[in-house]
Amino acid sequence: MDVEVTRSQVGGHSRAPPSKSYTHRAVLAAGYSDGATVADPLVSADTRATMRAVEAFGGHVDRETGDRRLDVEGFDGRPGVPADVIDCANSGTTMRLVTACAALADGLTVLTGDDSLRSRPQGPLLDAVEQLGGRGESTRDNGQAPLVVGGGVDGGTVSIPGDVSSQYITALLMAGAVTDTGVTVDLETELKSAPYVDITLEVLTEFGIEATETADGYRVPGGQTYDRTEAYAVPGDFSSMSYLLAAGAVAGGDDGVVVEGARPSAQGDSAIVDVLERMGADVAWDRAAGEITVRESALSGIEVAVDDTPDLLPTIAVLGAVADGDTRIVDCEHVRYKETDRVRAMATELEKLGAEVSEERDTLTVHGNDSRLRGATVAGHDDHRIVMALSVAGLVAEGTTTVEGADHVDVSFPGFFDALYDLGAELEKHER
Ligand SMILES: O=C(O)C1=C[C@@H](OP(=O)(O)O)[C@@H](O)[C@H](O)C1
Ligand SMILES: C=C(OP(=O)(O)O)C(=O)O
C-alpha cells in the first residue's frame, strides 16, 4: 500500500497505542510464568511474533478476548523444544528475547525472520549464549539469522558490548531469572538505549523477579519464578506518540493536537516532549491526566543526542526539516542497525522532499531551510518508523507526498493512518 498525504492541518484528540516494548516483555514474562493476563496490549505484527514464540515454546495466548486483553498460559519456566522454526518476522525485540529463551531448552530452536531481520546483528548475543555453555549459531556464519540456539544453559557470567543493542541485555536478564545460578552481564562498552533495560527491570519487578544494576552491568539471580496474579496493564507508547505530537507541532494550528494515554513510565522516548519544547514548540504534558497538548509553533534547530532514544531519530529529523537553523542528531550510530539504516534512509528521503541533509557515521544534520518542503514520492524502506515520520512531513510539504510501502505501520502502530485521518489529515490509501 502507498499513502498520499496532501498538505493539511490537523487538530483534536488522539489516543496513543499501547507500548510495543512493554507488550513484548509482558507477553514473554507471562510465558515464563504459569499464566497471566496482559491488559491493553499492543496487538501488532511485531507483538504477534512474540505471541507465536510463546506458543512455540508450549504456552498459549488467547486472543479471543480481542485487543483489550490477552490471557497467556505459560510454558512455566523452561521452554519446550518448538515443533517448527520460529518466524520473528520484522521484530528485532522478538528475535533477541526469544534467542535467550531458546538457550534454556534442552533441544534446539531455529529462528528466522524477514529480509530486514535476517540482516540485523545477532552475533554478540550468540556469543553470550556460548559463554553460558549453550549453542548459539548463525546458519550462514555471519552473525545474522537464521539462528540455531539451544543447550539448556544454567547461568553464568557473560561479557557483551553495550553499543549494538540493549535487547541482548533484556533477553539475558529475562532468561537468566529461571536458570539455576543466575546470569551476570558485564558490559564491554557503554550501554546505548539504556532506558529499554529500565523498562525490562520494571516489568520483571511486576512479575516478581529481582534483577539489579551492578558496577559493570546487570545481575539476575537464578532459581526465580515469574508470577503475576493481577492483570498487567500496558502503558501508552511514546515512540508512536512522537508522530502525533510532531504532527501537532508542524500542522496543528492554534488548537493543536491532544494525545491521550501518555501516562509516565520508564520509556526514554518520552524525551520527545523535551525535544519539542527545546525546539520552541508550545507543548504541555499533564502527567496526572496522561495528556500531552501541542500546538503549531515556529521551530528552531537544536542538537539532540539519541543514544538513549534511537527510535525518535526519524521524528526529530522531520522536525528538523521544518525548523529554522540546523538540527544535529548526534550519538546515532546504533540507529543504523534497525529495520533499515535509518540515518541513511532519513537523509535520502528528506532530500527528495527538498531538505538539505548531511550525514556522518554518528551524526545526522538537517540544515535549516528557508524554502518549504515540496511533495514528492518517497520510499518507506519497509520500515514503520520511516513511513510514519515521512507521512508527518507530508502534512507540511507543498502539494502531495506519496509514501511507498505504507502498510509497514502494522509493525508497531496499525491504526496510524486512521489516527492521522481522524485528526483531519488529507490522505488517501492506494493498494499496489
Ligand atoms: O527493547 C526494546 O523494546 C527496544 C529497544 C531498542 O532497540 P536497541 O536496544 O536495539 O537499540 C529500540 O530501538 C526498539 O524499538 C525496542
Ligand atoms: C527497532 C525497532 O524494533 P525492533 O528492534 O524490535 O525491530 C523499532 O520498533 O523501531
TrEMBL record:
* Record-listed E.C. numbers: 2.5.1.19
Which portions of the chain have biased composition (kind: Polar residues)?
A: 1-11
The kind of enzyme this is, by top-level EC class, is transferase
Subcellular location(s) per record = Cytoplasm
Residues given in the record as 3-phosphoshikimate binding sites: 20-21, 25, 165-167, 193, 311, 338
Segments forming domain Enolpyruvate transferase: 8-420
According to the UniProt record, one GO cellular component term is: cytoplasm
- Pathway this chain belongs to: Metabolic intermediate biosynthesis; chorismate biosynthesis; chorismate from D-erythrose 4-phosphate and phosphoenolpyruvate: step 6/7
Q: Which PANTHER family match?
A: AROM/DEHYDROQUINATE SYNTHASE, PENTAFUNCTIONAL AROM POLYPEPTIDE
Q: How does it assemble?
A: Monomer.
Q: What is this protein called?
A: 3-phosphoshikimate 1-carboxyvinyltransferase
User: What's the source species for this entry?
Assistant: Haloplanus ruber
What would be the name of the gene that encodes this protein? aroA
